[in-house]
């Protein structure tokens, strides 16, 4: 009889799960940091006009968006089919543009106020009278930095 017995192979050893919580939390923090929240739900149609010469805005945190267009089909029953303005998440009138700009300025740092830009995301089929009314309201509150958002492309092909 021998003193030493050969061990039978017990198969492959189990996988260590000791680092699994670290990996899960690392992924969780990555997705929390990389994800951006949607700030407004668009209730109007917004087919932007095309322009062949465009430039990007570098600092998006200094931009307030004003949308204009016809309501989406699911809002026809409540809003009708005429051109509307959307400020943030709600459909507004032209007279509310002034209060919207004032509240946007108040929510920001006073030093950042000089960089604040009003970005007009206007549907290509909106009547120019509505755009002119929005611009007049912006002038009344001394919001003179205005940007027209377009999509890149040849405007003649539209």
Structure description:
This protein has 158 residues and is an alpha/beta fold. The protein has helices at residues 20-34, 76-79, 97-106, 128-140, and strands at residues 50-51, 63-69, 84-87, 90-92, 117-122, 146-148, 151-152. 27% of the residues lie in helices and 17% in strands. The protein has a 5-stranded mixed beta sheet, with helices on one face. Strands 1-7 form a two-stranded parallel sheet. Helix 4 (128-140) links the parallel strand 5 and strand 6 (146-148). It is elongated and about 105 Å long. The mean pLDDT is 87.
Strand order of the largest sheet: 4-3-2-5-6
Count every beta strand, where a strand is a DSSP E run of 2 or more residues. Answer: 7
Q: Characterize the largest beta sheet: strand count, sense, and whether it forms a barrel.
A: 5 strands, mixed
Number of separate helices = 4
- State the secondary-structure class: alpha/beta
Unreliable stretches covering 5 or more consecutive residues: none
Mean pLDDT, to the nearest integer, reads 87
Which shape, going by the Cα principal axes? Answer: elongated
Share of helix, binned: 25-40%
The percentage of residues in β strands lies in 15-25%
- Order of H and E elements: HEEHEEHEHEE
Radius of gyration: 27 Å
Distance between the termini: 95 Å
